[in-house]
Amino acid sequence: MRHSSNDERSRFLNRLKIGKGYLILDAGTGSGDFAILIGEKFKEKQPWIVAIDFDLKEHIKDARNSVKEKKLADVISIVGADLRCIPIKGDCIDNVVSYYFLSFVPSKDLCRVAHEMHRVLKTSSPMLMLDFHPKSRSETQTIFLEMVELSNALKDAFGAPYLKVNFHDPRYLKEIFGKAGFRNVCYQIFKNRIETSKDLVNFYEEMIAKLSSNNRSRLCRKLNRVKRNLTKFGKAEYTDAYLIRGVK
Ligand SMILES: C[S@@+](CC[C@H](N)C(=O)[O-])C[C@H]1O[C@@H](n2cnc3c(N)ncnc32)[C@H](O)[C@@H]1O
Questions:
Q1: Tell me, what DSSP letter sits at residue 41?
Q2: pLDDT at residue 1, rounded to an integer
Q3: Does the CB atom of residue 97 touch ligand 1 within 6 A?
Q4: Which of 11, 17, 123, 179 has the smallest number of Cβ neighbours within 10 A?
Q5: Structural domains in the chain?
Q6: Is 132 touching ligand 1 by the criterion CB < 6 Å?
């Protein structure tokens, strides 16, 4: 899913402590937007941001174009790779960050990802990650959950089940990252903070139109339910978020 919550990104950015010449890993960079924000905000610190995402054509190409447009090619390297096996030597990263990445990792892969993040970090260096936590049962959160259900169904229909959203309990993540060797792992929950992009409904509509008629009518029903709820509540969909942190 794409997200438009720049305020949330800015709040997250304000929590980052970036020193001169830091080597930063942005895990699951997607469109590269978060890496770009870090690059812009901390440019004078001359960081080098290694922004990794699966080597899927559209992600990597779009992200590289955005980096070029923003004239940040000397600050950000967009790397197509699998974060279950990070192509970086151990003990060299100063900061691991991610913005909506963990929810895209299936539970069975979390341990591998956590171990890899721990391996590449320097001793005493931090990881800081923000992600969805749809725990409360507000109406807008219900819309959010319906959107996720629709997005997951679309990913199945387009043969990309590995991009489905999985909600992880931060208590469980704390255990996983602790077992991977992170110290002082803790998390914070934020209520109703994430607003997903309002253009998603149109985007889903376009994707559904490309499907075979069987899949199309099933997903159209889901989409119509979301549209009805959006009209009824007159709001975009929000969800809660967690911020998890720890130190190697
Ligand atoms: C919601 S998107 C990222 C959003 C992005 N961080 C932003 O700020 O806009 C989650 C990304 O994680 C990537 N991803 C999930 N599992 C991965 C893995 N094992 N290796 C690399 N990328 C992965 C997906 O391809 C997807 O682009």
A1: H
A2: 46
A3: no
A4: 123
A5: 6-134+165-196+239-247 (3.40.50.150)
A6: no
